[in-house]
Amino acid sequence: MSFALAQYQSTRIETASPVQLVVDLYRGAISMIAVAIAHEDAGRPGERGRALGKAHAIVSELQATLDHDQAPALCEELDRLYDFVLHRIREANVNSDATLLVSAVEVLQTLEEAWTELARSRS
Fold first, then answer.
1. Which among 10, 15, 82, 120 has most CB atoms closer than 10 A?
2. DSSP class of residue 44?
């Protein structure tokens, strides 16, 4: 990665709103799953595993930062959705079955769209 790109990304993260950071995390997880699917299709299980590991880490971080004191019902629902996505990622990796990722991506895309709309309404 070039120095200029690294600087841009660092500045973007430091100046983004919390809502925009969540949107970026969803996009990152979706992107890593797409990369994993491409690696699966190309017969590169090691690269698939690394991409799924990154997606898993992103979703795990989203789950770990839920504030159940602020919105208990919402957090409970998000927690269940994240569990579902994490389970699909693990199963897809263990079974080398990219079709298991379709429903995980659908969940993440729905959440990303909702958070994107929230970000727009706040700007």
1. 82
2. -
pLDDT value at position 11? Answer: 47
**Dist CA 35 CA 51 (whole Å):** 6
Domains and their CATH numbers in the chain:
18-122 (1.20.120.340)
User: What's this model's pTM, rounded to 2 decimal places?
Assistant: 0.86
CA of 83: how far to CAs of 1, 5, 76, 92, 120, in Å?
33, 33, 11, 14, 27
Q: Which amino acid is at 75?
A: C
**Could you read off the pLDDT of 47-62 as tens digits, one per residue?**
999 999 999 999 999 9
CA atoms within 13 A on the CB side of 11: 6
Residues 73 and 79: their CA atoms lie apart, in Å, by: 10
Are the C-beta atoms of residues 112 and 23 closer than 8 Å to each other?
A: yes
- Please give the full DSSP string across 56-110, using - where no structure is assigned: HHHHHHHHHT--TTT-HHHHHHHHHHHHHHHHHHHHHHHHT-GGGHHHHHHHHHH
Q: For residue 122, what pLDDT is reported? A: 80
